[in-house]
Design a protein that fits this description.
By secondary structure, the protein is α+β, with helices and mostly antiparallel strands. It has helices at residues 18-41, 46-49, 74-90, 174-183, 187-215, 221-239, 292-307, 315-318, 343-346, 349-356, 420-427, 530-539, 544-549, and strands spanning 2-4, 54-60, 65-68, 101-104, 116-125, 128-138, 164-168, 171-172, 245-254, 259-269, 272-276, 321-324, 372-380, 386-394, 429-436, 452-458, 464-469, 490-493, 496-497, 504-506, 511-515, 553-556, 561-564. The longest helix is centred in the middle third of the chain and has 29 residues, at 187-215.
Length: 566
């Protein structure tokens, strides 16, 4: 099965000069950013308000993506264009009216699992559709057994919302909202976040029409063509900097019980890229399977990190890329495979693709990262209020040719971390400690970022259900070019090993301890400057012993000096 974008054709309309194009492009970004701002101000859940697990996208009347909010997640910007096509297949443009708002959370039409709601609004000007706005956000709950990888089929994972009209002519579709409220735990938060998405699209759509009025644009065709054509040209030029050929990689990652194999081949042919995931292991009976839409999104993100960080995200950027995955493999699973924890697999796609390019472009690849873990907590807080909240703890970023990995940073996803004060107030759980883990980053000329240890105690007075979703517990973040790997992650409950992807009942007073992984190093440790090692020790990233044994540097913390030893 394949996903590929169509190459652009030159526009037959008047070309836009670079200055005008830059001004118009900036305005489109500001429109999406204003929509995101509205969504955040009107949101109800921490996963949206604090973690920014969201995206806002603008499309032209033909359904081509042309701009996105600056705080958008890479997974959602990659799936959004395909989602819009599914929505318009169900409700063609001629069936839509002003004030209609459509939505779905279908795993194979949306973002790969039920927990993300995709909301779309057509923008009308002078009685015709001139574009579409879309927002996507992770919901705090969608029913089922909860946000976990423990489900054995997709029917356990919650409410599946087919493409439907949330709003009809500006009025809520009460039946749809009744279905949602009847199937989720924290209905106020869920419906509140959905309406925050509706508000985002309303504002973005209004601003888009005002933008067109201001500049006298009858449609977005010329502007869309210009934006996408420039992105496609820039991307193809970047691809041509890589020698033609086929580059392969295979890695093992944690599954639910057994290891999972991910494999890829990347073919560079002039300005075209073909990525084939043949050799990847089959889908499994737990909720870590991935639909092709989310696999493609993380493939686009990986390639953008490698060669196109400055190129705007739109369908022009996607045009040179073709993605293929065998049907039924874990990266192209089919219903009813459970998918709620699909990020536990697709977040390894950057590592897989970077590894394929490690020898071809060693100056731009990055060592593996420690990633981030989730703890979803369900139950009641001290006041008896029902909760369904997500805590995130971050690992270290992998080192690169010219930089150390960042400490405890969310990667490869860009979601934020819920502040401790907010978490404790909402859940009645106490974060006893949250500290760096010295020596957890891979040793190298450029050090891997360190992970963190977090200890959380249940002070709610109620038994809570905890669903951990952890990475890097069996396979460490790989170091590159002579560097060492990062330290593994660990999950414990009351000092006993805790399965990193299963379900746990947490009694009052119980503690969960999460140790997130360190990132891999880059380059030989013997090449690291003693001054950097000294700073690592002073900052608490590296111990005095590791400085001496691993880096060959004797550090005196009292005099703040360091010297190379034999």
């Amino acid at each position: 099965m394949t996903q590929a974008a169509e190459p652009l054709q030159a526009s037959t309309q008047t070309e836009l000069d670079p200055v005008t194009l830059g001004i118009l492009w900036d305005r489109l970004i500001s429109i999406t950013d204003e929509g995101v701002s509205v969504m955040l101000r009107s949101s109800f859940s921490t996963i949206l308000r604090e973690c920014l697990d969201l995206t806002a996208i603008l499309f032209d009347a033909e359904g081509n993506s042309i701009a996105q909010g600056t705080k958008s997640l890479p997974s959602f910007t990659g799936t959004g264009p395909a989602t819009l096509r599914h929505i318009l297949d169900r409700y063609p443009p001629e069936t839509l009216n002003p004030g209609d708002v459509l939505a779905t959370n279908d795993a194979w039409q949306g973002t790969g699992h039920y927990f993300d709601i995709c909301v779309m609004r057509p923008a009308f000007r002078n009685g015709r559709i001139v574009g579409y706005t879309m927002s996507i956000s992770h919901l705090p709950d969608i029913g089922g057994i909860g946000y976990t990888a423990a489900a054995t089929d997709i029917y356990q994972e919650g409410l599946r919302i087919p493409v439907c009209k949330l709003m009809v002519g500006g009025r809520p579709n009460d039946l749809v909202f009744d279905f949602i409220r009847a199937n989720v735990r924290v209905s106020e938060q869920v419906v509140g976040d959905i309406m925050a998405n509706v508000s985002c699209n309303e504002v973005s759509g209004q601003k888009l029409v005002e933008f067109m009025d201001e500049y006298g644009l009858d449609d977005l065709e010329t502007l869309s063509q210009a934006i996408r054509r420039q992105s496609e040209h820039a991307m193809r030029e970047q691809v041509r900097t890589i020698p033609d050929g086929e580059y392969r990689n295979k890695i093992e990652i944690e599954g639910f019980d057994d290891a999972v194999t991910l494999a890829c081949s990347v073919t560079v042919d002039g300005g075209d890229l073909r990525i084939d995931f043949d050799g990847t292991g089959p889908s499994v009976s737990r909720g870590i399977n991935c639909a092709l839409n989310i696999t493609s999104a993380w493939t686009y993100f990986s390639l953008k990190c490698l060669m196109a960080s400055g190129i705007p995200n739109n369908q022009g950027f996607l045009a040179p890329i073709t993605i293929t995955a065998p049907e039924g493999c874990i990266l192209n699973a089919r219903p009813p495979s459970p998918t709620a924890g699909r990020h536990l697999v697709v977040h390894f796609i950057p590592s897989l693709i970077f590894g394929a390019f490690a020898e071809a472009v060693p100056d731009v690849v990055q060592a593996d990262s420690g990633m981030l873990g989730h703890l979803t907590v369900q139950g009641r807080n001290r006041d008896g209020r029902e909760i369904s909240d997500i805590f995130t703890a971050t690992g270290g970023v992998g080192g690169a040719m010219s930089a150390d990995g960042s400490e405890t940073t969310s990667t490869p996803t860009t979601i934020g971390v819920v502040p401790v004060e907010v978490w404790e107030a909402l859940t009645s759980m106490t974060v006893e400690s949250k500290v760096f883990v010295p020596d957890s980053g891979g040793v190298g000329r450029r050090r891997g970022g360190v992970g963190q240890e977090v200890v959380i105690r249940n002070d709610s007075g109620h038994t809570l259900t905890v669903f951990p979703m952890g990475y890097r517990t069996d396979f460490p973040a790989k170091g590159y070019h002579g560097a060492s790997d990062g330290q593994l992650a660990r999950y414990e409950a009351n000092d006993r090993h805790l399965h990193p992807k299963d379900r746990y009942l947490m009694a009052p007073g119980d503690r969960v301890r999460v140790v997130e992984a360190g990132g891999g190093g880059f380059g030989a440790a013997s090449e690291r400057e003693p001054e950097r090692v000294l700073n690592d020790v002073l900052e608490g990233y590296v111990s005095v012993e590791s400085a001496r044994v691993d880096y060959g540097v004797e550090v005196d913390v009292n005099t703040r000096t360091a010297r190379r030893v034999a």
